[in-house]
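Structure tokens
________________
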Amino acid sequence: MAAAASSTDRPGALDITRRLTEICGPPFARFAGPADEVAGRPARWVAVPGGAHAAAEVLRLAARHDLTVVPRGAGTKIDWGAAPDRVDIMLDTGRLAGIGHEPAGSPTAQVGAGTPLRAVQATLERTGQRLALDAPSPGATLGGVLAAGEAGPLRHRHGSPCDQLVGVRYLDADGELVDAGGGAAGLELARLLCGSQGALGVLVSATLRVQAVPAGRIWVSRPVWTPLEVHDLIRTVLASRLDPAAVELDLPAGAGPRPRQGTRAAAMAAHPSMAGRVRGGPAGAGRLVVLLEGGPADVAERADRLVALLGPGAAASHAAPDWWRRYPFGPGDTALRIEVPIADLHAAVYALRDAAGGPVPVRGSAGLGVVHAALPGAMSPDRVASILAAVRGVLLARQGRCVVLSAPPAVRRAVDLWGELAGLARLRAAKAHLDPHHRLAPGRLPGGL
């Protein structure tokens, strides 16, 4: 893409700033600051349009001046994925917010892309409803969750956010407002935008299915020490037909072999007086936690059955563990997502441990074979690359994959973030059709798209 002359000389830059100000209003258009970057790539301008029409005008302005546009919600996942080739205009969706008025008891809700997910849930809860979305990123907007394809524990029963879609409204690269949904072809297009990081279209709003808030929720937990033990327990849970809403695993870096337990300690743990009590478990233990939802009596009965099924150490609680809906990585870490058939999850975790030379923090939806892991940010790029190669070699034979979600700049530049991607040809065709001039977040998708 040719460099935009109007954005490099001072008079041209001021003219674009003036035009953005006319479109968005004086407080909502400016030159970008130090914090306005995407995966380390700095933006030139920030525009915060007040509605779909204004957002369309921003995109048309960008098209006229050959500028790139990258959407931003709350910025909770702005460093996920590859850095774009250029960020001329960062289009902040914060004012594309709100929840459409729906009749009481409606099975769907229309939500603006810039609406914080927690605000949507709080509004729906007043009428006893919810979205079956529980993305871990605090403060995330609905558009950001969809654009990143982010899902939390409830994906076990309800699928990803993409699976909740009825339709979307989005702006294409030329600033045309498009409604996608209402049929197989439209729904396929709507779901194609999920996980696209804003590189196929700018989400304006989404219509999603809603459901009644469950009257009862119980978390059943059990300490675990090894990936193989987790494998056996998950098979037990899934074979029990107890209809879990989520099956989550937390294996901290310190998790090791099961400690020896004396006969007296084992007898005390199994005493009836301990029934239903949450026991923290020995230091270094991980935990497998199963969420059960439904009517209070039914959930209580299923929880009792599951506690008995999981055996010593299992306990039920009406509160989630403190790590629930939290990633195992933090700012500056190299964050990995591993997807593998459930039966091979233990092999993937063992491969990661072997390659890293010791236990690595792993957490996520073990009941689906989708977990996250963290490598220290101080680890050298060459070391990260060798670990990725070893893990991907194991996963390749098991129809699994390992993706780098975010990483320090040196690691991001040195490693293949995506690995093998079966759908690359389809993604390339979609990019060519929806954004032929590569103006929307160019380079953000796999294959440099």
The longest helix spans residues 381-396. DSSP finds 13 helices and 19 strands in the chain.
